[in-house]
Design brief:
The structure holds two protein chains of two kinds.
Chain A (H helix, E strand, L loop, with lengths): L4 E8 L4 E8 L3 E5 L6 H9 L6 E6 L2 E6 L5 E3 L7 E4 L11 H6 L6 H14 L15 H14 L4 E5 L7 H18 L2 E6 L2 H7 L2 E6 L2 E7 H6 L4 H6 L5 E9 L4 E5 L2 E5 L9 E5 L5 E3 L14 E12 L2 E7 L5 E7 L13 E6 L5 E2 L12
Parallel strand pairs in A: 3-9, 3-10, 7-8, 8-9
Antiparallel strand pairs in A: 1-2, 1-4, 4-5, 5-6, 10-11, 12-13, 12-15, 13-14, 15-21, 16-20, 17-18, 17-20, 18-19
Helix pairs in contact in A: 3-4
Chain B lengths: L1 H32 L5 H9 L6 H12 L4 H4 L9 H25 L3 H9 L4 H12 L1 H16 L3 H7 L9 H10 L3 H27 L1
Classes of the chains: A alpha+beta, B mainly alpha.
Chain lengths: 373, 212
């Protein structure tokens, strides 16, 4: 992917320092991380609503912002950047109808303003809302109007700040599909801020894990979630099952780890025998084994019997916390409709498999001694 | 005489109200959206005509507009004892009401909406006239009505800087004073009724603006 938007900016606050480096191509890049990590600040810097202390923002060869040495300063005002911005809460103008909101950026060219706005509403299938005011619309409807308005001036970059937070689930999935379609059709560079993992999966091509004002890791969404580069990324993406183990064997076929007495097999990864390494496994990759069912080839290794410590059912997901024979606890997550006949209860035992292919080492500068668990 | 005073009041009030709206809106915007050193002092100075005795305001205005003051010395503008001075006095006492109301109204507009307009290509004047002002319009209108009504009723400071010259500077409040002095209660009653009606109407309008 050829990068079109490049940013490398610094901004200092009293208790917080932002240093974001990012390259984005014609794609949807999700900025993922906890609140206060600097995601919204980054969007504001790209849009021109906030001036960084130093650095550079460049899009398709145009310098939006540059401040490196004294005397060399470019800071294009927001209105000249051609950046579409869908704000958190949408920021629709309450005194204007949907149509007037969408026509707002088109007013310089009155002759084509209204028809174009109508066309946009139609393409987003919300023409029936044209004459409603924002307070007369649902969250999902407002979101569509906000998106249409942001696209009306034909921006090259689209910024979205928590676009799905006020929308219920079925609507959310539709909006995510629409967004991907629009991005592809219009060849947009999209930056989408979210702290919701499902949204990141639903909409993003790539994911940047943001924490403490920095990009911890960038990669394809699935890859970052399956292979957090280091402990910090793992924490951010919500990998709770991080532990430390000793490398007992290492060969081209794979690794054998000793986790405080529990023998674990893992796929081949870069490490050395005798090293103590941080290891993780996603809760989805700890499989509950169904007693009556044949066990597949991929689930032959790393089988343990565990005691259920906690049980939680939410929507379609069943979550367990179990204690392994080595005394450590791990989280387990699986679709709620399966395994119902297992009759799980706190204190009962359950047969588990820590899927071999999913046992991963955490790499990175801080990975090794950052935390013991 | 009544007709003259009525026309004079209308002229003075119209000029003062236009000035109050323009200057008051600008000051309200500055007070609502900026921070600067000494802001609270400036705000207090703008508000002070509300609480000072009108004669004190009039005295300051005499210093400002009279001989030896900057208007005469630097601008060669002799306005004392003309209707211009009456309009100026009305402006000064009506301004605080407009500043206060428009500041509150503008501060109540979500800055995110203004930022949204910026990303949609609006210049700063565009942001103000297409987003901020329409959303603050109730408070701004209320401030204009209150400021205008206060300008219409101005008496003390006007008497000090413009005098009470029938046909030249005599407005309705001044004529009422004159009429009572002359025990011309017919004129006084009539004008008092007119003034009360106008005051009632403006306060009622302000309430309506606040309600709906």
């Amino acid at each position: 992917m050829t990068p079109r938007l490049r940013l490398d900016i610094e901004k200092r606050y009293d208790s917080f320092e932002l240093h974001m480096e990012l390259e984005v191509g014609t794609e949807i890049m999700v900025l993922f991380g906890p609140s206060g990590a600097g995601k919204t600040t980054t969007l504001q810097a790209v849009s021109g609503l906030l001036s960084p202390d130093a650095g550079e923002i460049e899009f398709d060869g145009d310098v939006f912002f540059r401040r490196s040495r004294p005397g060399d300063r470019v800071d294009l005002p927001a209105r000249r950047r051609g950046v579409g911005y869908v704000f958190q809460g949408y920021a629709l103008f309450p005194h204007l109808t949907a149509l007037e909101n969408v026509a707002f950026p088109l007013r310089g060219h009155t002759s084509r303003g209204k028809p174009e706005a109508e066309e946009l509403l139609e393409s987003m299938r919300i023409q029936h809302l044209a004459h409603r005011y924002p307070r007369e619309m649902s969250g999902g409807q407002q979101q569509r109007v906000a998106l249409a308005r942001a696209l009306a001036a034909r921006p090259g970059i689209l910024l979205l700040d928590e676009p799905f937070s006020a929308v219920d689930r079925p609507m959310r999935e539709r909006l995510q599909r629409d967004l991907r379609r629009l991005q592809a059709e219009l060849g947009l560079v999209v930056l989408c801020v979210t702290h919701n993992l499902e949204d990141a999966f639903g909409v993003g091509h790539r994911l940047a894990v943001v924490q403490d004002g920095r990009v911890q890791q960038v990669g394809r969404v699935g890859e970052v979630l399956r292979r957090p580069r280091d402990l910090r990324s793992a924490e951010v993406v919500g990998v709770s099952n991080v532990f430390h183990a000793l490398v007992v064997e290492a060969s081209a076929d794979g690794l054998v780890l000793d986790w405080d007495g529990l023998r674990l097999e893992a796929p081949p990864q870069h490490t050395e025998v005798g090293e103590r390494v941080p290891v993780y496994i996603r809760p989805e990759d700890v499989k509950v084994l169904y007693p009556d069912r044949r066990i597949g080839e991929s689930l032959r290794a790393n089988r343990v019997e565990a005691v259920v410590v906690d049980l939680h059912h939410s929507g379609t997901v069943q979550s367990l916390r179990v204690e392994l024979p080595n005394g450590h606890e791990v989280d387990v997550r699986f679709p709620g409709y399966t395994y119902l006949p297992l009759n799980l209860s706190v204190g009962g035992t359950v047969e588990l498999c820590l899927r071999r292919e999913a046992v991963g080492l955490l790499h990175g500068p801080e990975g090794v001694e950052a935390r013991s668990s | 005489m009544i007709g003259e005073a009525l026309l004079m009041s209308l002229k003075v009030t119209a000029v003062a109200t236009v000035a109050i709206v323009v200057v008051g809106l600008a000051l309200g915007l500055v007070m609502a959206r900026t921070r600067f050193f000494g802001k609270s002092v400036v705000e207090t100075l703008i508000m002070i005509p509300l609480v000072l005795p009108p004669t004190v305001v009039g005295y300051y205005l005499l210093l400002l507009l009279g001989s030896g003051g900057p208007f005469v010395e630097w601008l060669s503008l002799e306005v004392v004892f003309t209707w211009h001075a009456a309009a100026f006095a009305s402006f000064v006492v009506g301004l605080p009401l407009m500043v206060q109301a428009s500041k509150a109204a503008i501060a109540g507009v979500d800055p995110t909406l203004e930022n949204a307009a910026r990303t949609l290509g609006s210049s700063e004047p565009g942001v103000f006239f297409r987003v901020t002002l329409p959303l603050a319009r109730r408070g701004v209108l209320a401030g204009s009505v209150l400021g205008g009504a206060r300008a219409l009723g101005e008496f003390g400071a006007t008497l000090m800087v413009a005098g009470n010259i029938p046909g030249r500077t005599q407005t309705m409040p001044l004529l009422i004073y004159d009429a009572v002095q002359r025990r011309d209660y017919v004129t006084a009653n009539l004008l008092v009724l007119v003034m009360t009606g106008l005051a009632f109407f403006s306060l009622w309008a302000v309430r309506r603006l606040g309600d709906s």
